Amino acid sequence: MTKTFKGRVVVPGTIEAEALVTTAGFNTLASFQKALMFGDKQAKCSDQNNPELYNQPMQGKALCLPQTIGSTTGGMILYCAAKMNRGPSCLLFSKPIDSLAAAGAVLAGVWTENPMPTIDSLGEEFLEAVKSGMTVSVGEDGTVTIR
Fold this sequence. Notes:
The chain is an alpha/beta fold. The chain has one domain (about 5-145): Phosphohistidine domain (Glucose Oxidase, domain 1, 3-Layer(bba) Sandwich), CATH 3.50.30.10. The chain has helices at about 30-35, 75-85, 100-110, 125-130; strands at about 5, 10, 15-20, 25, 60-65, 70, 90-95, 120, 135-140, 145. Strands 1-10-9-3-5-7-8-2 form an eight-stranded mixed beta sheet. Helix 1 (about 30-35) runs parallel beside helix 2 (about 75-85) and helix 2 runs parallel beside helix 3.
């Protein structure tokens, strides 16, 4: 099964990666705390309140989520994860991105060697169709294909 979705480009780029999906809000600080503070190079999700992601490696994955929640440090956390090569390969939002996550994604694209192509407004159908383990391809124009 192949499905294609079109969203708004926040940070351009092309990438193909394995999907890691949550249907709950993504707490950036809680999720990356172990990776950034305690040296977990796989960036296993440390947010115990997100059972879909808890203890799952996030590094190099296509992180598919509705929105971010939680700390105002969210943007800096995303930037630091990218800078330390522990971030996801891309961020794919079903809803419009918030300003903090957008800032972190943009900073990662400008100031690191590990940009995270970021697409938002992919729609609820996107999160219903994509499952963890699927292959996700992201195009420069905001096209996201899952298979």
